[in-house]
Amino acid sequence: MSTTSKLVCPGDWDEASHVVSDVYFPHRLTPLSREDAGNTVAEAVELGPVKITHISWGADVSIRSEHPGAYAVNVPLSGHLESVTGKNEVSSVPGSGTICPPDTTTLITDWSKDCSIIGVRVDRDYLHREMARILARPGLRLPPQLDLTSENGASWLVLVRSLLDQMLRSGGVYANPFVAEQLSGAVTTALVLAAIPDDETAGGGTRPRIVKRVIDEIHSDPARAWTAAEMAEIAGVGIRRLQEGFQEYVGVSPRDYLLDVRLERVHADLLRADTSATISDVAMRWGFTHTGRFAAAFRKKYGSAPSDVLRG
């Protein structure tokens, strides 16, 4: 599902802060000058787990946020951002972007008056799953700053700016949930490839490749009645070695990874299904044959029952 929103010229700082919180992240705003909020601009488009925003306060401000449940990538188009997260102090200007980790306090000590940003919000769990799928390496983390002068970084920024511009002008085909799903994946994959240097993903030897083969096959056909032997055959190794590879490079077993992908597909279908759909039909479509176990796994992952998502 995709949505768009836009605010221009709010009445006061409280209103401006409230709207930016709604379209990006909840935060505490502190104006650092005597300018009013009349020049604030906040625009946003949403592609499921990814949200792209354009924000400008039109005044020197400070922002404090914990970024609950998601990463923020703040890319100045003009001006500068001075940010502190833990021991990391990051100064970003055009050509770079600040990456704020989820559920961690980040203080933007100086968002300059002339600073306009493209802000990209990516759901934490979604990004982690995409990193595991793309890189097949455990323990890799996004750096505190993104280089947008590199080929991958520049291409990613062109992609997100183009999507923001086109979706704000007209939803069109982007409103289609299937298109939105593909675009959110493209934005996230491009972000990971831009943020993680090649030398950090190289040198993994055979196991990352065998794991990636199975991961790609699971994503292409999660409803398949998978067996451990079939997965091992695709990887070209024994079952035990494949399980060791998944634990080492993904952090879960192949079976648990498959379960997670299936739950994601069911969740996405329930969000866009009408009330005439039955939960059991949707679950069976993605390979679940035991409704009780499915419901328990769904609730554990999403914190709510499948029926709540369908009605919501």
From TrEMBL:
PROSITE patterns registered for this protein in UniProt: HTH_ARAC_FAMILY_1, HTH_ARAC_FAMILY_2
Keywords: DNA-binding, Transcription, Transcription regulation
SMART domains cross-referenced by the UniProt entry: HTH_ARAC
Origin superkingdom: Bacteria
TM region(s), chain numbering: none
InterPro entries listed in its UniProt record: AraC-bd_2, AraC_XylS_family_regulators, Homeodomain-like_sf, HTH_AraC, HTH_AraC-typ_CS, Tscrpt_reg_AraC-type_HTH
Keyword DNA-binding: yes
Gene3D superfamilies noted in UniProt: Homeodomain-like
Pfam family, one: HTH_18
HTH araC/xylS-type domain sequence ranges: 212-312
UniProt protein name: AraC family transcriptional regulator
